[in-house]
């Protein structure tokens, strides 16, 4: 089987499986999987920067929240209907990503991580500061009546699952196409050896900025969809924790693989879901997994798969 | 016609002159060797030519245009290619992908694959096209670097110590390659291996303590007493 | 209260913040300076110091000064040992790779914080100060063209707050003496300047790293023991000191101890004074943006000198 056929089989297979699962899963897991697919889309966005371009952002909650609040506030305050509200969320994410990228990309390595962390923290505090609009930590609910997209009620579990699936499929296929394109290959080259890529004549800054914008916009799409599908917008989603989550998911699943973000999100979601039944200190699991991953499996699950089974895994 | 020239090109590190007031002219079509003892400023000098190192002062003119302030990637886009002294291939990527990355700046689609195969065949790596670059031997990685330079079809090819670490037979093949290229490409060669320099260069420039010590045909340089004292030792 | 006395009160409160912040930030700066890694779990070592101080004082009983004195000495050592253990078991094994170290210390952050939540619980608990006399402060007023001293209502501090400032100053001077005047300080500075050269000269770099990481955490813990009689111990209290230490270390110039202390005093004082005029949230927004922009446009810090 050729690489292209294998790739199509693997990723198409996952999408077919996820599509089919909605008809058999019990309600609880059905709802979970919808949530996981949206969060995995967030992780996919993070992976474009971290996994493929080698840029470790500690502030991706900013982009997720930009999408979520761009959507939520335009519904809440401007009275937008879902379709233009989603677009508003996307644009908010795109603009924030372009600004943050243009500034933060002047730094490298650890400084880049801290700058993104600080921008995200400033974003979180801004949400709190304008509490009269955002309702701060408490957040606000998007009513069922405001969640009708082209006559489809997105608060209905079946519709919600399908919408989450559609978002995930688009994000997955977009990154798959991206990393197989010449553009994506330049990003990988920058990750591997930035100086060499520059001396092949590539404008490294421009490529990195494009990666930040693509990554931020996908993350914003996930944020906007999350708010719309689950009917709630709150400051938690802008907090440091939501910058750490995508890092955790992608590291666990395998940075720089197309399937990794989904695998990592799936595992982590259920780990935390199960442990939060036992203790309120469920973030302990996240901490332990982070330490174990850095120590023993920096490639993550899909990374191990690539190392042992198929080197051509995209 | 002069393809590349510098005027007063200088680089100081903390008051130390790594390169000092170098005036340099490279005519189109020439194979020029740049030699000199270790620490003479050769790599700093070519670093300033292709934009990796910002000069303290002086100008670089390429194809009649002042490129002194252009960033590296724009100079490469004008038709320079640079191969690294310390092997700097994309170790985790395939051999073909390494060369393809260099080729895709000027080519698209199927043409890329043909150009990649050609360049790899030229340096004798045609049978290694499916390997991962990091798995190649050191000498083969050097050849891959050269292939990445060739595939860009540059107007000026800058090779920084290309034969370092190559086996005897590979050095011989390299000489043949340079002679074949010299019809179409201007080449600037930093080289320690004197047999390569003597057999391939049209003109040799000798740097010592950051300054041009001598310049001339290989036979003249070989006979030059000052050069012998500074660099060739007893010759 | 008039504006003058009010400002003086704010400055005094700011001086306490600055003293504690300087200790915490010097710990972070030391780790960054010598080891070239960013310890994101630094705030949790601070939190651990406060929680352990509560535990120790409630265990010992008797006069509050007794338990507090024991805590002030024992807690930083305990936290330092714990940090050194984390260094040896985790950071050493990932070879102090800067990016992986950040990820690993994020993991350590959650482990420490959540284990505290599971054992100590979600409540905030006070520690009784060892001494706490209220000191009224005078202010000068001009009446009939002559200056006159008077004691405005509400303008006061406590002997304990002054004690915190004094103790922090003593410890900082101690750190400076160790770094500048002792053999172990010389070894640390040598490691900071050139790790490979230090190795070549037979300096046991890995032991130095363990020591520095422990010392950095110990300083944070000591700062927390000092502040806990004023602030209460809580499992989420590590966030603010981490953020403020980041700000201080970055503005002071990464890895520079004098710069860190100057920045801590500046930030501590202005934090007290700014929050008189602005909402604390707005002050924090401006501070975080300042850090980001300093890193982008002046990576050597506001007071640092650009290296060639």
Automatic annotation (TrEMBL), chain A:
Name any one Pfam family assigned in the record.
BPD_transp_2
Q: Name one GO molecular function term.
A: branched-chain amino acid transmembrane transporter activity
- Record's keyword terms, sorted: Cell membrane, Membrane, Transmembrane, Transmembrane helix
What the entry lists under CDD domains is as follows: TM_PBP1_LivM_like (cd06581)
Where is it found, in Gene Ontology cellular component terms?
Answer: plasma membrane
| Membrane topology, from the record | Multi-pass membrane protein
What this protein is called in its record is Branched-chain amino acid ABC transporter permease
Organism from which the protein derives: Sedimentitalea arenosa
Upper classification of the organism: Bacteria, Pseudomonadati, Pseudomonadota, Alphaproteobacteria, Rhodobacterales
UniProtKB/TrEMBL annotation, chain B:
Transport as UniProt keyword? yes
Q: According to the entry, what is the taxonomic lineage of the organism?
A: Bacteria, Pseudomonadati, Pseudomonadota, Alphaproteobacteria, Rhodobacterales
Q: Does the keyword Ubl conjugation apply?
A: no
Q: Which organism is it from?
A: Sedimentitalea arenosa
Which Pfam families does the UniProt entry name for this protein? ABC_tran (PF00005), BCA_ABC_TP_C (PF12399)
Q: What is the recorded name of this protein?
A: ABC transporter ATP-binding protein
Alphabetized UniProt keyword annotations: ATP-binding, Nucleotide-binding, Transport
List the Gene Ontology MF annotations in alphabetical order: ATP binding; ATP hydrolysis activity
Residues annotated as domain ABC transporter: 4-234
A single cellular component GO annotation: plasma membrane
Automatic annotation (TrEMBL), chain C:
TM ranges? 6-33, 45-62, 68-90, 102-121, 160-179, 208-230, 242-269, 276-297
Tell me which domain of life the UniProt entry assigns to the organism this sequence originates from.
Answer: Bacteria
Which Pfam families does the protein's record reference?
BPD_transp_2 (PF02653)
InterPro entries (UniProt xref): ABC_transp_permease, BCAA_transport_permease
The UniProt keyword set, sorted, is:
Amino-acid transport, Cell membrane, Membrane, Transmembrane, Transmembrane helix, Transport
The protein's topology relative to the membrane is: Multi-pass membrane protein
A single Gene Ontology MF term assigned here is: transmembrane transporter activity
What GO biological process terms does the UniProt entry carry, in alphabetical order?
A: amino acid transport
GO cellular component terms given for this protein? plasma membrane
Q: Where in the cell is it found?
A: Cell membrane
Segments forming a coiled coil = none
Give the protein family: Belongs to the binding-protein-dependent transport system permease family. LivHM subfamily.
Name the chain's protein: Branched-chain amino acid ABC transporter permease
